[in-house]
Specification:
Helix 1 (about 20-30) crosses helix 3 and helix 3 crosses helix 4. This protein is α/β, with parallel strands linked by helices. The N and C termini lie close together (about 10 Å). It has 2 domains: about 20-245, Alanine racemase (TIM Barrel); about 260-385, Lyase, Ornithine Decarboxylase, Chain A, domain 1. Helix 5 links the parallel strand 5 (about 90-95) and strand 6. It is elongated and about 80 Å long. Strands 1, 11, 14, 15, 16, 17, 18 and 19 form an 8-stranded mixed β-sheet that branches. The chain has a 7-stranded parallel β-sheet with strand order 3-4-5-6-7-8-9. Helices cover about 30% and strands about 20% of the residues.
């Protein structure tokens, strides 16, 4: 899969090309890692990790994805609209943040399944289900070590005691799924995932008739006991192994099996020569040691290009790598092309700042962050182009 070779910038100075076909192929690959009894969902929260849920989700639905996860009711309602408009109104949407007070009617109207994270949410959803015809479906999130969302150990123990005592604390609710979330699924050396798997298995034994889900991207790629009724890959759909640059062994093979979904290109705004000793950019953090050829590109931190990449990143121009020099500005970056083939540069109109020559994992590593943040912080100013739809 590949993005546009000659970008159509339109009125913009940078363009982000999203390869929908790559995302679909990544979903198919991830789905192939489990058996036929395991469903592979699509996590499209945060606007499909910054790439456009209204474009990504319908394509995944067309490929066979039946269940989608978002974070909030707002995201869920927008996704329902996009799926309905594309002819996929029957797909299931779950909101990971749960149903908050006053949202109950909207959840039911848009047929959104809340992920219940506390006894308060559980009781309120149960109470409203009693007075509402239908619409009582929910998922139950049990925290097994993330210490973030989900019923905490005390709440979970309370719930299971009531069930053991013959009470019906879930009466009136169609519990479609019981789930937990791995805290370090991508780190094979961290034993937390094994402990979470054992804990979750014990909890599921007390809820034997409810489909279970534990695997995020890391768990989906780990396989084995982490694959239950439903897997929930997120970042891997968009071409990044959750271990980033730290993949080893089989993980490296897995990373190579994922298609990158994003290419980002920026216009060459200006070409100039500069003298040895000149300082480049704000506060002159880069001083030229020789007479140099400098290009200024139309992308900066206002577009989502990390400011921390100044004097660290590289870009690809006419198939050649060039370093980013000086600080990243709001609207531009500068690159040193002195060592490149000047004849090839003469015909160049743009540089690739994210893509095959400078992959997402590398950009994230150089920026001191993770690929998730790079994608979700992509700005609105760059033009968006969708290919292989």
């Amino acid at each position: 899969m590949s993005g546009a070779l000659s970008p159509d910038f339109g009125h913009a100075d940078s363009v982000i090309t999203v390869d929908i076909g790559a995302i679909v192929e990544n979903w198919r690959y991830l789905d192939s890692l489990s058996g036929p009894r395991t469903e592979t969902a699509g996590v499209v929260k945060a606007n499909a990790y910054g790439l456009g849920a209204a474009r990504v989700a319908p394509a995944l639905a067309k490929a066979g994805c039946r269940t989608f996860f978002v974070m909030s009711l707002d995201e869920a309602v927008a996704l329902r609209r996009a799926l309905t408009d594309s002819g996929h109104d029957d797909r299931r949407i779950l909101a990971l943040g749960g149903c908050h007070a006053g949202q109950e009617a909207a959840f039911r109207e848009s047929r959104i399944t809340p992920v219940i994270n506390s006894l308060e949410q559980l009781q309120r959803w149960r109470d409203t289900a009693r007075v509402t015809a239908g619409g009582g479906g929910a998922a139950l999130h049990l925290d097994t070590g993330m210490t973030r969302l989900g019923l905490d150990p005390e709440e979970t123990a309370w719930l299971l005691r009531r069930i053991e005592d013959g009470e019906e604390p879930l009466a009136g609710i169609d519990v479609e799924l019981v789930m937990s979330h791995l805290a370090a699924g991508e780190d094979l050396a961290d034993k937390t995932s094994d402990r979470q798997l054992a804990s979750f298995a014990r909890l599921c034994a007390a809820l034997p008739d409810i489909p279970a889900s534990l695997a995020n991207s890391g768990g989906t790629l780990r396989g084995g006991g982490f694959h239950m009724a439903l897997n929930r890959p997120g970042i891997a759909l968009y071409g990044l192994h959750p271990a980033g640059l730290d993949t080893t062994g089989d993980q490296s093979d897995q990373a190579a099996s994922l298609y990158p979904a994003v290419t980002w290109q920026a216009r060459i705004l200006q070409r100039r020569t500069a003298a040895a000793g000149d300082r480049v950019g704000y506060n002159g953090t880069h001083q030229l040691r020789r007479d140099s050829h400098i290009f200024t590109l139309g992308v900066g931190y206002a577009d989502g290009y990390p400011r921390s990449l100044g004097n660290l990143a590289t870009v690809t121009i006419a198939g050649m790598a060039a370093p980013v020099i000086g600080r990243v500005s709001m609207d531009s970056i500068t690159i040193d092309v002195t060592d490149l083939d000047q004849a090839r540069l003469a015909a160049a109109s743009h540089a690739e700042i994210l893509g095959a020559g400078y992959a997402l994992a590398r950009m994230a590593g150089d920026a001191g962050t993770i690929g998730y943040e790079i994608l979700t912080q992509l700005g609105q100013r760059p033009a968006r182009r969708y290919v292989n739809c």
